[in-house]
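Pilot study result, target chain (343 residues):
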Amino acid sequence: MRTRNQYLDLLRAVATVRVVVYHSTGWAALSIVFPAMSVMFALGGSLMAASLDRYGPFAVEKRLQRLLPSLWVLVAIAVPAMLAIGLVWDWRVLLWAFPLQDPPATGFWLEGLAAMWYLRDFLWLVILSPLLLPLFRRAPLVTIIIPYVALAVLTFAGWRPPPVLHDVALYGGAWLLGFAHHDGLLRLTKRRCWLVGVLAVAGAAWTLTHPGPRGFDLNDIPLGNALWSAAFILVALGVSPTVRPSRLLTVLNARALTIYLWHVPLIVAVARFAEWSGLPIFGWVGIGWRLAVVTAALSLVVLAVGWIEDVSAGRRPALVPGAPSRRAPLSPAPAYALARSDQ
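Predicted structure:
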């Protein structure tokens, strides 16, 4: 039986919490201190490479089986609600079942489902992985460089490709670095420390000289984001510290998809309630109470529908993952059985 890498679980848990806090607060510094989305794509690439080595092309089907059911639960609520308030039915609504493109949205859900781009891009990278992994193993360095070069060309030329192509260029490098991690190619050495420094300086320089509408928020500065995130990933995945298992890590990893899918609708709902009721939204008081309410509501949602992730992964459904299993005490063997065993 394979043992879980608790350090990777820790990175995923931190990334999940960071995403929720960022969307609740809007603190741009969080995108620099921990570029969570790139880390999540890198972890996804590492896990996908492991699945491909184990299952071959069937790994794509297995990954889709784990991703889509949790989405369908949210969609089963969101789509009827949007149709009820005037969303016009056409074939693109069906994309909510398999969002390879951005499906239509309206009303509250236009904001509430804004983070679905991550699942869209993740699905594309999963589907492309059976082709990408052999190419990567033939020419690792060249393959990793290609997305960064493509992003640089798009940036300098000022081209605006479809969102999927842009995001594959932005996060494809992180996915491929995940491949490299799985193949043991990211161990941090003195030589690679120089590369980390070059990437970090280049990313910081571009970010400082090309601020976005929210200042130095990396989510508004794609090239700076990609370069800075590459440096971060090389360090984060280049080391392998020992991390002790914990119940919190187990819960956050077993429910990461549910947390991601539901946190934005809850954040938007709480913000709209604050606007309606006149409660503070900004400042430490506003951010504090909103984050507390979002956390509580998200916990309830995880309890209600998080078990779907267990079913998708082929695990026994659990209200709270990681609970120690209770085993019935062994009863002493009957005397006649002991007597028979001595014969």
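One observation from the pilot: The mean pLDDT is 92. A full batch analysis is planned for the follow-on phase.
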